[in-house]
Amino acid sequence: MKDPAGLSLPVEPKPTPPLSQSREGDMACEVLYFQKHIRGAKIADSEPAAGGIEIHQVLASYINHLVRSNRSTDLEAFDGAMRSASADAREVLERFRGNHAFDPEGVLATELHIVLDQNFQAIEISEDHGPVPEYVGTLDLVTLDSLTEAEIADWKSCYQIIDADTFQSKFYPLLLMCLNPSLERVKFVS
């Protein structure tokens, strides 16, 4: 059997990977999706992707510090977290530095990884054979406004106009509402 690029398929094909925001984006290119997600080919991260990961790590570390210390800002801690970042990441983080404050009591989680099964039920993934994940996503920041309302902040490491009606803007609230069925309204902010 041949893949879309004309290469031979492995004898035992891998199971279809769970749907995620990044995989949905990769579906725009059939060959990329097949090579990366079906064949398991290692595709090097681009420089912007690596910088984005770095920025997310600094922001998660900083917000988790704010929650632990019960503070809305702590520029000294932010500067400390930024020191180990690359020059490109620091440039983006500098723009963030002075214009964000957080209510530490409203923060539910940073980098919240949600995994759902085929019935949209939250599941734990373990090394042994457990439930098969169908939908996965990692939410950058989740805050609770009340027991029934939440907000998802999705950090972008570049300045560009992003359509408000995207797959991600619908998928992430779905993941969160499946994880916490008491939520009636989830606002997605990108």
Q: Please, could you describe this protein's structure?
A:
- There is one protein chain.
- The protein has 190 residues and is an alpha+beta fold.
- The protein has 2 domains: 47-97, no CATH class; 107-189, no CATH class.
- Helix content is 37%, strand content 16%.
- A 4-stranded mixed sheet has the order 1-2-3-4.
- Helix 3 crosses helix 5 and helix 4 (75-82) packs antiparallel against helix 5.
- The longest helix is centred in the N-terminal third of the chain and has 23 residues, at 47-69.
- The radius of gyration is 19 Å and the shape is globular.
- The termini are far apart.
- The model has no long low-confidence stretch (mean pLDDT 84).
Strand content: 15-25%
Structural class: alpha+beta
Average pLDDT = 84
Please report the distance between the alpha carbons of the first and last residues. Answer: 42 Å
User: What is the number of independent domains?
Assistant: 2
Instruction: List the uncertain runs.
Output: none
**Radius of gyration, whole Å:** 19 Å
Going across the major beta sheet, what is the strand order?
1-2-3-4
- Largest sheet geometry: 4 strands, mixed
Order of helices and strands: HHHHHEEEHE
Shape: globular
The tally of helices reads: 6
Q: How many strands?
A: 4
As a percent range, the share of helical residues equals: 25-40%
